Amino acid sequence: MQFADFNAIASVGAFFFGIAQLYFFLFIVVPCNAWQRRSCQG
Length: 42
Fold this sequence. Notes:
Elements: H1 4-35, H2 38-41
């Protein structure tokens, strides 16, 4: 089990990276496309 520590670190990092993508999609992409706010266009 030589890569167990690295695997744990990479798994935690990937989890937080996925949460960041979900946050970006829900709070930036969806509001800009759903309501077409002027602040999103410029």
